[in-house]
Amino acid sequence: MELEKIRQSDYEVRWQHDEDVPECNSCKKTFQSRKEKFHCSHCGKIFCLDCTSRTVNSGPKKRPFKVCNVCHTLLDHQTAPYFSSEPPQSPS
Prior knowledge:
Layout: H1 2-9, E1 38-39, E2 46-47, E3 54-58, E4 63-67, H2 69-75
Antiparallel strand pairs: 1-2, 3-4
C-alpha cells in the first residue's frame, strides 16, 4: 500500500497550497499577498511573477502555459540545461 502511494506520487503534480508557501521557491522573495503567487503549470510549485515569466506550448492546441525556469529548461528543447557549459542554440 505504501509503495503504491510513492509510485503514484511520481506521476502526479504536487500542487502547493497558497497558505503553505510564504516565499518564492526560486528567488526566495517574501510574498505580501496571495495575488503575488503563481503556480508552475508543470511542477505545481509556487513562484513570484518574475520566476514564472516563461511559457511552454502544450496540449492538442499548443496553448502556452506558465512554467518556472527549471521546468522551462526541462521542457523546452531549445534551452541548454543548467549544468551545460554550452550556450543555448538559436532556432534554425
